[in-house]
Amino acid sequence: MRHTAIDPALFVENRARLRRLLLPGSLVIVNANDIPATNSDGTRRMAANSDLFYLTGAEQEESVLLLCPDAEDERLREILFLRETSDLIAVWEGHKLTKDEARALTGIENIQWLPELPRMLHRLACEADHLYLNSNEHKRAEIVAESRDARFTRWMQERYPLHSYHRLARLMHRLRVIKAPAEVELLRQACAITKAGFERVARFVRPGVNECDVEAEFAHEFVRRRGDFAYNPIIASGHNACVLHYVDNNLPCQDGDLLLLDVAASYANYNADLTRTIPVNGRFTPRQRQVYEAVLRVLRASIAGLTPGKKPKQWQEEAEELVARECVGLGLLTQAEISVTVTDPARKAVKKYFMHGNGHPLGLDVHDVGFTTEPFAPGWVMTVEPAIYLPAEKMAVRLENDVLITEDGVVDLMADIPIEPDDIERLMAGK
Ligand code: GLY
Ligand code: MN
Ligand code: MN
């Protein structure tokens, strides 16, 4: 791992929070992710499994967590199984966690090597009534490859067909959406790395630089600060900014165009999510500034509108209403067009210019887990990302900040990243 050590009290507390949600006689099993294959014998760096990390801090491949809070033998109530190193592994892959290191990392006393797993699992499964297994559940995830957890679930159900099975994901989503102070601190660090990347890029961009060059500047700043890209960066100049998931990042930035940067860092597996839109030549045209200020007003109002008790759906509708009114001011829609009541929300006039969500929970996943059918509550971290897309004018403006909801109001975790158009111009001028 590149990040500095995290106090294991976070993971100890996360396990305690999970235990409080379990039925009596439960056994929870969480697997690491697979190492993703490319082609031939190629692989890519493994992404830590977010739930395993949340509960243990472990990022090593093949790790397995068992939680059995009611196990008769107290020593078996929390066990982490690890891949044991060997001379061969040491030469080819380098260091693997020792048992002592794993204890210090996770706060789990009982660390075992993987060959012990079947025997101990069998013993605990015979004691337990309820088996909580993990699954990747997100309404937009298209799952084509069977994950390690999914293979494990199949194997368990063949072996123990009469147990009562439960989706651990339901509980993890409930827990993970509320961020502990230590998690907010890690998110702040991801935001600080993101800020450094953005400020470097703002000073670097000028007509003629390629979007690839911009990506490289971010990469340098993120990696040297022990971060990484939180998601595939979107570096979209001119018309490219109207492609929502543009990731080619391979065209020259033209004088007079805007450049949309949806680029952020992760740190210790916690993700920031930032969007800024800047003028390639360092000066907004009057029209660009007009659209920019409209989006900025919506961003400000949407941040203020993140109040505990409000449902995300209502917040989305409020943002669409705000963008719609701005579109009238910008001469894009008429008052009559935005006043029509439509039964199908997808047919609202404003959707032509603002067709995506105004934000999402953020954390160990960029589109983080959580029940977005439920009202906002203190501890949620949300992105706020209104936009106006104008392909006919070869531009788009999207602005995105990350915000913590508290009982006493919102805390903008990106409040120190320049966003006012004058501040952007000053920054780009090297002032
Ligand atoms: N960068 C992905 C998003 O804004 O949701
Ligand atoms: Mn984003
Ligand atoms: Mn986002």
Structure overview:
The chain is of the alpha+beta class and 431 residues long. The protein has two domains: 9-175, Creatinase/prolidase N-terminal domain (Creatine Amidinohydrolase, Chain A, domain 1, 3-Layer(aba) Sandwich), CATH 3.40.350.10; 181-428, Creatinase/methionine aminopeptidase superfamily (Creatine Amidinohydrolase), CATH 3.90.230. It has 13 helices and 17 strands. α1 packs across α2, α8 (181-204) packs across α9 and α10 (286-304) runs antiparallel to α11 (312-329). The relative contact order is 0.11. The mean pLDDT is 97. Bound molecules: glycine (GLY) and manganese (II) ion (MN) (2 copies). One manganese (II) ion is lined by residues 273, 360, 383, 385, 400.
Give a brief description.
By secondary structure, the protein is α+β, with helices and mostly antiparallel strands. It is 35% helix and 16% strand. The strands form 5 sheets. The chain has a 6-stranded mixed beta sheet with strand order 4-3-2-1-5-6, sandwiched between helices. It has a 3-stranded antiparallel beta sheet with strand order 7-10-11.
SSE layout and pairing:
Elements: H1 9-19, E1 26-31, H2 50-56, E2 64-67, E3 78-82, H3 87-92, H4 99-106, E4 110-113, H5 117-127, E5 130-133, H6 148-159, E6 164-167, H7 168-176, H8 181-204, H9 211-224, E7 228-229, E8 234-237, E9 258-262, E10 265-267, E11 270-271, E12 275-279, H10 286-304, H11 312-329, H12 335-339, E13 381-384, E14 387-390, E15 395-398, E16 401-406, E17 409-412, H13 421-428
Parallel strand pairs: 1-5, 3-4, 5-6
Antiparallel strand pairs: 1-2, 2-3, 7-10, 8-9, 9-12, 10-11, 13-16, 14-15, 16-17
One manganese (II) ion binds at residues 273, 360, 383, 385, 400.
